[in-house]
Amino acid sequence: MKALVAVKRVVDANVKVRVKPDNSGVDLTNVKMSINPFCEIAVEEAVRLKEKGTVSEIVVVSVGPKEAQEQIRSAMALGADRGILVETTDEIGALEVAKILKGVVEAEKPELILLGKQAIDDDSNQVGQMLGALLGAGQGTFASEVKVDGGKVQVTREVDGGLQTVELALPAIITTDLRLNEPRYAALPNIMKARKKPLDTKSPADYGVTAGTKLKTVKVEAPAERKAGVQVKSVDELVEKLKNEAKVI
Amino acid sequence: MSILVIADHNNQVLNGATLNVVAAAQKIGGDITVLVAGSGAQAVADAAAKVAGVSKVLLADNAAYANQLAENVAALVADLAKGYKYVLAASTTTGKNILPRVAALLDVSMITDIISVESANTFKRPIYAGNAIATVQSDEAIIVGTVRGTAFDPVAAEGGSAAVEAVSEAKDAGISTFVNEEIVKLDRPELTAARIVVSGGRGVGSGENYHKVLDPLADKLGAAQGASRAAVDAGFVPNDFQVGQTGKIVAPDLYVAVGISGAIQHLAGMKDSKVIVAINKDEEAPINSVADYWLVGDLNTVVPELVSKL
Known about the structure:
By secondary structure, chain A is of the alpha/beta class.
């Protein structure tokens, strides 16, 4: 079966971001960009399913600027077969991304659609669910285990309080949680090979979607700073402070 | 203005997070209806009817909603939503699973993790793991959003007297089925609702040591227990203990971080706590920069000493 994996280009997880002085957004000039960690897990899961013989072809798609090609190439170096970049420089909302992905799914007809559970920049946690709604497909969100069996897929989900397992008809949407797997590192020969794999460039208009979003970001601010704390030298001092100064115990 | 709040529950008990959502709904202002979609969930509907500020409760009691499958519940909510201006749910795994699906069915954008209501259509939400706060304005016909519970003081669970109305409609999309669930049983308060949280990180060394060192402290303080992702990934405790961007977001009165270095990911889940205490052997640990009090020392001697002096 064919698997489609959506990946997003985001600020690297280890970067401490700074808000722009004019409060228009976060400063992304000269900041290291990477594949979103949850998306990397989605790619890894698809590759593992291919290694097991369940999946025959992995198509990776990204919606974003020209530079998102780098993230598609990274996914190909991990084992994806070909890529589609839906190029747009506009800010684009989760609903619009889901609509574009719906167009890609209708063109490619994959049976498994894998996404990260959330992007670490906007922290929305929406696209997979929205795509499920638009396609009328089942969704296994926050997946920590995926088992494909015949025409169905069993997904173990991380829910508040523990785990829940659901069974979905194919095609189905799966969004990955951190514990699903540990992504591999791309070996140099695979990085070289990835450069030769096919990568198509499309535009949102090819799928009948206008990029943008109906949610207007009015401003972006730094969070309130916590006032500096103090180092206590002993347990006695800590207990005294908690009782008399902070009054929390 | 009418607001539909989706109740978070397990068919028996109304999750406290719903009280925080009702509080956010009151900040928006308007008539508040709570939807309880479940199976055998009459007790939940009765509890919701007593919540202060709720004017009506809708009970959709059907086997299709027993396990809160998004495919079925979202279809129901999207149908009912057409009569409302707002659809809100808690930012729990259930809320986050269902609401984006509802928004897409309604063809509207959605706002995740609302932490403040600025006006009828303007809200604040954290982005970049809480390292920036975005103010967003929605001009959608129906505003759909999840509410971060720790950002709103809950309304009273008692004092209301709303009428319960049955919803007869049942939606079974037939594309998903529940198989089973494993719920971790806890004797301690629920993590996101606790007044005090005691958390352990990689520094505690092992699962055995986590319980040996932290259980007595949590018992003494009547605290819930949490953990960093490092401690969860190392298998010290189950993953629903995880506090952080990808785990649970907590904001207790007192957060005690033991053997936790304080990665950005973890800080995003706890830095809104009123008082933060860090116990760590590393003087340079990033956690110290957000802690109100920090103590440098070996947690294996410091924590037992702390327990004995409380």
